[in-house]
Amino acid sequence: MAQMVEFAKMNGLGNKILVVDMRGRSDRVTPDAAIALAADPATGFDQIMAIHDPKASGTDAYIDILNCDGTKAQACGNGTRCVVQALASETGRKVFTFQTVAGILNAEEHADGTISVDMGRPVFAWDRIPLSEEFHDTSRIELQIGPIDAPVLHSPATMSMGNPHAVFWVDRDPMTFELERFGPLLENHPMFPEKANITLAHVMSPTEMVTRTWERGAGLTLACGSAACAAGVSGARTGRTERKVDIIVASSPNRGKLSIDWRADDHVVMTGPAEWEWSGRLEPTTGQFERDNEAEALAR
Question: Is 286 contained in some domain?
Answer without folding.
Answer: yes
